[in-house]
Each structure stands twice: as structure tokens, then as C-alpha cells.
Amino acid sequence: MHVFVTGGNGTIGSAVVAELLGNGHTVLALARSDASATSLDDAGAEVLRGELSDLDVLQTGAARSDGVVHLAFGRDYSAPDALARSIAEEGAAAAALGEALVGSDRPIVAASGTPWVPGRASTEADPLATDGPVGGRGRSANALLDLSARGVRSALVRIPRTCHNDGDGGFAGLLTAQARRSGVAGHPGDGTQRWPAVHALDAAVLFRLVLESAPAGTAWHAVADEGDMVRDMAEVIGRRLDLPVRQVPEEDFGPFGPIFAMDQPSSSTHTRDVLGWKPTHPGLLEDLENIRP
């Protein structure tokens, strides 16, 4: 396939681009800066310049492809409404990409998050939340799956709260960044809440498998670690950075605070059984040992 990829320079995206190229596909990748364009070109991808908000550019990329992997998401959370704006932008981009594929039976695979289910690990059969701080992502993801009724082989890969590589990435990476800023390896609550996790290289394999063969209107879980305790993450971060470890207020983590405090384990049993996906790379706590002081 000739695959159009958004977010191809991120922790997940760079791994997905490499996975696709290494398995006989070609890649057209959106680049939002000169540095991104250079990196993608060096990786072997064809480059399409544009912003995630350039919906006409996105549709051009989709029209030129045999399939789409949509990974791009905003990273600037400095403003109070930044998370909401990033969710809205991501949703508009997904809708534009999907519309370009209507009636073609071509695939689009988009990233979303694993759902939260009180008292147990979430599964692929559980619906995404459509209210709360990240409800907009759930609504956009559901709209993408609904395109299966309009001749699009749409699918979701639900990514855990931490997708990591070389000790960085995802929510655990935000814990590390906050520890560097504050001088404390902090965790909200007592730290016994659990977060699922996956190595980016394992997630990339699943994106390829779903792109190649998943049925329309389906959701899959890129979960390798069902649930690591946040306190255990903070302890590794504290040891690697030589910082004290302690409970800190949720507010220290800005808009992510309430999400960070939730117990949110997740399972990938169905994904492994049906698609034959087998994570092989280090788990989160082992990978956090790569944090550089």
C-alpha cells in the first residue's frame, strides 16, 4: 500500500513509518515543519507539507493513498484550553480524512485512547467516553467508525495512557517532565492507580496489522502492560533523576490532573487472539530505567 500518515514524527508515528516501510509499504507523510520534513525524508517517506488544520491538504494526501494512518495530535498544553483545542483539531482532521475515502473501501486507522471502566480492566468491547475532559476524542472516534457504513474500512487502535520508547513518551513521560521542572517525582493520589502501557515499536506493529487486515468498524487495543501503578513509575523516575518521591496535588498536572488520578487498567486479550499481535519489547517500568539524569 501507499499509506498517508499524519503525526509521523511522534513517538508512535516514527515507529509506524519505519514499520510500514520495513514491511513493503510506501509512505506519504504530513510534515508541519522543515525539521519534520527532513526527518521524514531521511526515514524514507515522501513528504507532504501542511498543518493538521489544513483540511484540504489532508484530503489531498488521503486521495493519493491506498490507506491512511491518522496519529497527529497537538502537544502544546500551556494554555488552559489547549487540550480542548487539540481534541477539536484532531477530530476535524479525522473527519476530513474519512470523507476523502468515502465509497472507496480503503482503510483509515486512527489512534484513540483506551476507555475507563470502574472496577475492572477495559476491553475492546467497551465504548469510549463521550463526555468529560476527553469526551471529544470519543465522539470523533465513534464518528470515524460510523464511516464503515459509507464504504470506508475505518478502524481504531486504542493507545494506552503511556506509549513509550527509550524511557520517554505518554503520561509517564509527562510525569518525568514534571519531575524535572518541580524537583519532585510526584504522583497524584496514593499512587496505586494503574495505567496501561505499550512500547511504541509494539504499537507500530499493531497499526500495520489493523491497516492491512482489520474489518471495517472495529476497535483494537495496543496494550502490553495491563496496568502499572503510578507510584511504581514515580519511584523509578525519582531514582533515575535522584529526586524525592511523594504524593502531590492533582492540580500540579494541569488539565491532566483528574485523568492522572484515575485507575484505568486495560486488556488486549481480544486483539492478541484475533490479530495475532504479540508485544515483544520492554515493559514500561523496565523502559523507564533508560531515563537520563
From TrEMBL:
Positions of the UniProt region annotated as Disordered: 114-135
Gene3D superfamilies assigned: NAD(P)-binding Rossmann-like Domain
Any GO MF annotation of the entry: aldehyde dehydrogenase (NAD+) activity
GO cellular component, one term: cytoplasm
Lineage top rank: taxon: Bacteria
NAD-dependent epimerase/dehydratase domain boundaries: 3-215
Pfam families linked: Epimerase
CDD domains, sorted: SDR_a7
Name of the protein this chain belongs to: Nucleoside-diphosphate-sugar epimerase
Lineage: Bacteria, Bacillati, Actinomycetota, Actinomycetes, Pseudonocardiales
